[in-house]
UniProtKB/TrEMBL annotation:
Organism for this UniProt entry: Paenibacillus pini JCM 16418
Domain Cytochrome c: from-to ranges: 43-119
Name of the molecule in the record: Membrane-attached cytochrome c550
Gene Ontology, cellular component aspect: membrane
Keywords (A to Z) from UniProt: Electron transport, Heme, Iron, Metal-binding, Transport
Post-translational modification: Binds 1 heme c group covalently per subunit.
Binding site for heme c: 57, 60-61, 96
Molecular function as annotated in GO: electron transfer activity; heme binding; iron ion binding
PROSITE patterns: CYTC
Xref: InterPro entries: Cyt_c-like_dom, Cyt_c-like_dom_sf, Cyt_c_BACSU-c550-type, Cyt_C_IC, Cytochrome_c550/c551-like
Length: 119
């Protein structure tokens, strides 16, 4: 009797493992979710600056991007690429909130390019 119970449990565990292998996302899918792809946009510095002001970024990063509560962004382009900046703005990082639900992807990409040009 005990052999039948153990065999049944083993069979059930195998079925659950197969179902999970089929339904769970793979490493590639998870990596894609972790790093959003930045759309190609033409840099519009005036629009990027207006977006930064309108979204309240200056309250944490300072009116000259010199840093305050948030880090200094005056020369962020020498440390991070536009794609890295895009990912941070989209997903958030540390105390910085995500802006993926507040801004369009193209607006985030424009701000990321604008910041990446600051070297």
């Amino acid at each position: 009797m005990q052999k039948w119970i153990m065999s049944g449990l083993f069979f059930a565990a195998c079925v659950v493992a197969i179902v999970l292998m089929v339904t769970l996302p793979g490493k590639e899918d998870v990596a894609q979710e972790e790093k959003p792809s930045m759309p190609e946009v033409k840099l519009d510095a005036a629009a990027a600056e207006a977006t930064v002001k309108a979204q309240g970024c200056l309250s944490c990063h300072g009116d000259q991007l010199q840093g305050s509560v948030g880090p200094n962004l005056q020369k962020i382009g020498s440390q991070l690429s536009a794609e890295e900046i895009y990912t941070i703005i989209t997903k958030g990082k540390g105390g910085m909130p995500s802006f993926k639900d507040k801004l369009k992807s193209e607006e985030i990409a424009n701000v990321a390019q604008w910041l990446a040009a600051k070297k």
